[in-house]
Fold:
Amino acid sequence: MRKINTRNFVRATRGTAREINRRIVLNLVKEHQPISRADLARRMRIGRGMVTSLVAELLADGSIYEGSTAHAPRGRKPMMLFVRTHDRLAVAVDVRFSRTYLMLSDFSGRPIALDEFETIPDPIALVAGLARRIQRLLKARDAKSKVNGVGLVVPGMVDATSGRILNAPQLGWRDVDVRAALEKATNLPVHIENAPIACALAQMWLGDGDTETPRDFVYLTVGDGVGTGVVVNGEVVRGHDNTAGEFGHVPLNPNGPQCLCGARGCLEAYASNLATLSRYLGQEFSPTETRRLLQESGITILDVIARARDGERRAIDAVEETAGRLGEGLAIVINALNPSRIYVGGEITELWEQIEPAMRRKIRERALTVKAAETPLVPEPASSYPRLRGATAIVAAPVYAAPQVA
Amino acid sequence: MRKINTRNFVRATRGTAREINRRIVLNLVKEHQPISRADLARRMRIGRGMVTSLVAELLADGSIYEGSTAHAPRGRKPMMLFVRTHDRLAVAVDVRFSRTYLMLSDFSGRPIALDEFETIPDPIALVAGLARRIQRLLKARDAKSKVNGVGLVVPGMVDATSGRILNAPQLGWRDVDVRAALEKATNLPVHIENAPIACALAQMWLGDGDTETPRDFVYLTVGDGVGTGVVVNGEVVRGHDNTAGEFGHVPLNPNGPQCLCGARGCLEAYASNLATLSRYLGQEFSPTETRRLLQESGITILDVIARARDGERRAIDAVEETAGRLGEGLAIVINALNPSRIYVGGEITELWEQIEPAMRRKIRERALTVKAAETPLVPEPASSYPRLRGATAIVAAPVYAAPQVA
DNA sequence: GCGGATTTGTTCAAATTACGAACAATATCG
DNA sequence: CGATATTGTTCGTAATTTGAACAAATCCGC
Structure:
């Protein structure tokens, strides 16, 4: 039951009902393909004439296509419909502290081409370099005419409506607008998004049809920082000033280690990759000190993960402690939001069999109900490029989203 | 940008656009009254003919009425429209541990009659007694024909769709269905809701037109427990199993006092009324022990509040410690959800001038951004009966809510 | 092999509603 | 008192949902 905002509403027009139904058809094709007109009519409880009309429009605008006919026990064989994704493309960009990743993908998130380069700290210079690479990529693939837009994902607070990057500490960016410049340089629409939210949007919009994507879920990213993308009632939670989802800065212990945000004992200070490395090196979490030691020793999170997999006790202890802390943090998320599912992304998920029990144990200790304690945790390995897929998702999403009325 | 759930959607029909526009008109009248047809046409950017038609329907179904004409500098004086609430009634019920409160109110939440009685622990007996009181109340006020339904609010987890009370520990109720019996006994539709969520819904649906109710806000209730009602994107957050909003069980200190939920150091263990009383009595939070001492001494939270107001140091210290803890908890809420506003309900708000600085100080320590740290906190005294108003809201809400399509 | 039955997909007329223009009613101004 | 302006109502047109009828394509039983 949603409230109408009388200061910011969209009234219905003659085309509203038709637009809603056309989107429903498109989503049904996308998630239940192959599907016939008669199938659609049955699912939507409308006449086949109506379906023919709506499908004709979607065929005409290139959203779907007709494929094979299917077997029918009797009568005319149905013509099966498919969503067109393979030749509808997006440019996905993932800007991180040290490297920036680029992917040309289709609308289902399937990678066509990948590229990467060292992140240039100055946003203007970064955009210039990025635009050149995008042009080359599109030219090499003869793809310019098939691209709907560019999705760009950053590790920080983003106003997705205006495209401004409000604060991205890891990049040293504050109140930065790269969207206009990139649109001008590429002649493509550009969408900007916060990294954990983008990961969540990838699950929402590019999830495979096999497993139904829930409408209330959380995506937890474990990397240099710990962040969450929250989806409630089928919509991302951004918050009033676009700073929602900072479960990484929920304190597990008020007397715990100093976090980068200035507070003490945040989930991030216990469970980020840096925190795991600190623990592995046998010292309390201290970002500057730990970074110095890491630079000296050259150890990375992937090293620790490999050592844990190989049975090294110190590595196993470090990782399991992190898992327990993640469990504590997830218990808070579960009590606060009661999501249907929690996706967990980050390198640490490569040790899922080892960390899941520790996480689950802590969740069971603190979740309010038995059912809540059983909230499914779904790992997502870094190798599926969740942030890049998220960048694709923010380009594709407007095509599939419900019309915003009332 | 909301996702369409292809397994549970509502398609648009011929009447959809009209229904949406009619709801928009109704909400505009409700929140911007008095308002004329021409005003409505301008705000909605539609023709006056269309408005005349929609308004005629709302007049006919009794949602609005025509009032005075208003001044116009030139031309025909406009006929002002008002929402009808004064003779559209709801029965509101607030079931608490020791007493149950009953209110007959109109659709704006204005109380017409109040009643209360001792809560009968057995739900079947409670419903029987409640139904008798409701019948008497309606008969005394000759109101049977004007009542839209009954709203019943409990302190526990509720499946609002089915009306089942999943778990209400304070009442000792688990998996209880009082709705069907109460509907049968009163011949009225019955809506069941969780108490903090109901308080939030009161803000959303019965809020006065003067201050715009935000679409992202949190309602924190401080009483026997500490709970939250969360609204995101104009919709209440219930969670997958209807257990969302339990920010009261977010831990402030993992080694803190034992909470009723079984964990240690929950916000509730630090900031509920019982926790404040424990502190006042100079002992660590222990529900059973504290309750015993309170029973012996006869001291209540209102006593402590009165003493704090009178300047008694021990009472002031107890209350300010609670305020600080609430601030810590609110900082977590703010970082996690970034709401536009936080309403705070409970007896402790009677000392708002004293507790607000302590809360704000803690929030500033821990909120991630300066702007987030300035999230408005709005006190709501117990004397405005937020739970009863919430019960009214859940009856009235379906009349005003946006049609659920797509 | 053909007529009957069934299913899918298309076409078309009717009903409903958004849309916009014209008109009616009511007011003020010069 | 006529001109002008504003509000509210009426009415015709255009767009779309709705449902029936028809066309196309298939399988089955005789």
